[in-house]
Design brief:
Strands 1, 2, 3, 4, 5, 6 and 7 form a seven-stranded mixed β-sheet that branches. The chain has a two-stranded antiparallel ribbon with strand order 8-9. The protein is α+β, with helices and mostly antiparallel strands. A hairpin with a 5-residue loop joins strand 2 and strand 3. 34% of the residues lie in helices and 22% in strands. It has three domains: 107 residues, Nucleoside Triphosphate Pyrophosphohydrolase, CATH 3.90.79; 76 residues, no CATH class; 70 residues, Winged helix-like DNA-binding domain superfamily/Winged helix DNA-binding domain (Arc Repressor Mutant, subunit A, Orthogonal Bundle). The longest helix is centred in the C-terminal third of the chain and has 16 residues. The protein is built from ten helices and nine strands.
Length: 298
């Protein structure tokens, strides 16, 4: 039996928040399938993995990335249809940007259209109730399964466990990708739009990572156009975290932490008084070891 070849791809989860909606940049193939911007590592010319990733995103979307961090290496043996001939490794990255116009063949899509169980602003979404019924039947009488279900889908909701939730749904057979990988026709499922390969798994990894980062790093400001109001900042944090935060607690924390400073300007945002405008203070990272938001603020 001949040895399988090894192929390495670089996959980017490019996140933005627009109109209080977390959005991810995807490419669209000729069959209409959604995928993350990606390409194979050019062993001869890519000096680093990150430079290769930036090049692929620029070529496919004309977007110049700013903040980028490596997520994880995905290398399950059977993660690709041609896995008998090629062992495919994917190095996933998270990038944070402000949304720009999408080119032909690309699109900004709502993250919660891909992972609908992750949006708990306003309370648990209806899909969680449906999933819990299926998952409780799956876990019935098995202590390990019940513990896994409790940690991922039952209150108190832990937004950082986004990857664990997707992997549980995949394992139980509640996402389309599981049926596709098993070469079976999927039933009608209410668990969001599927993506090519394991790109929804990579997206879930990125979502859990950014939610964790919010608690101890000011990465949210990569997504903010300055100047901004405190309400705009709050809505962006809520969009990423997937939960509502208490307005007054959030304001006290942000103003007391030194994360922002006033510009002395205001903006009319409604019928009431004009809202004060703020900007991010990057020097806060020198002043505090973990300058984040410490979610949730209920």
């Amino acid at each position: 039996m001949s040895a399988r070849r090894l192929a390495v791809s670089l996959d980017a989860v490019v996140l933005a928040v627009t109109d209080h909606t977390p959005r991810v940049l995807v490419t669209i193939d000729e069959d209409g399938a959604l995928a993350l911007p990606a390409g194979p590592l050019d062993v001869q010319h890519d000096e680093t993995l990150e430079r290769g990733l930036r090049r692929y995103v620029r070529e496919q979307t004309e977007l110049e990335l700013g903040y980028v961090e490596q997520l994880y290496t995905f290398g399950d043996r059977d993660r690709a249809p041609d896995s008998t001939a090629v062992r495919r490794l994917s190095v996933g990255y998270l990038a944070l940007v402000q949304e720009t116009s999408a080119l032909a063949g690309t699109r900004w899509v709502d993250v919660h259209g891909l992972l609908p169980w992750e949006d708990h602003r306003g309370g648990p979404p209806a899909v969680v109730t449906q999933l819990l019924e299926e998952l409780e039947r799956w876990a019935d009488g098995d202590d390990q399964r019940a513990q896994r279900l409790t940690m991922t889908f039952q209150p108190p909701w832990d937004g950082i466990r986004a990857l664990e939730r997707y992997e549980l749904l995949y394992g139980v057979g509640l996402v389309t990708e599981r049926f596709r990988d098993d070469h079976r026709d999927p039933p009608e499922l209410a668990t969001g739009t599927p993506m090519l390969s394991d790109h929804r798994r990579i997206l879930a990894t990125a979502l859990g990572r950014i939610r964790g980062k919010l608690t101890y790093r000011p990465v949210v400001f990569e997504l903010m156009a300055e100047p901004f109001t405190l309400l705009e900042l709050q809505r962006t944090v809520e969009a990423l975290s997937g939960v509502d935060v208490h307005k007054q607690n959030f304001r006290r924390l942000v103003l007391g932490s030194g994360l922002v400073e006033g510009t002395g300007q205001t903006r009319q945002t409604g019928a009431g008084r004009p809202a004060q405008l703020f900007r991010y203070r990057p020097e806060v990272q020198l002043e505090r070891p973990r300058p984040g938001f410490g979610l949730p603020y209920r």
